[in-house]
Write a structure and sequence with these properties.
two-stranded antiparallel sheet, alpha+beta
């Protein structure tokens, strides 16, 4: 075989060419995506009601602390490690 000769492999049936433009890929994706109904997964057909929650937020009491590991507000009796401020569950 000389330098001028090149062997090209025939393309297999059903395969896309090695290089396709981005526009062609986007067009194929849009055509394939038209059949799917993604909105059906999100909404179940009923109206969503927006309700306000009536919760009274109470500030941290002097007998409570915030665990530095789990960030839960616990009673001082649950304090296991004063130095690290960990509750019994996290210590």
């Amino acid at each position: 075989m000389s330098k001028e000769e090149t062997v090209e492999e025939p393309e297999k049936a059903g395969e896309e060419p090695a290089e396709t433009s981005l526009d062609e890929i986007a067009t194929k994706a849009e055509q394939a995506g038209d059949d799917s109904d993604d909105d059906g997964l999100i909404s179940s057909g009923r109206e969503e009601r927006v309700e306000t929650l009536a919760v009274k937020v109470v500030p941290q009491q002097p007998t409570e602390f915030v665990c530095k590991n789990c960030y839960l507000v616990k009673h001082r009796s649950q304090l296991a490690d004063k130095k690290r401020m960990f509750c019994r569950d996290c210590a």
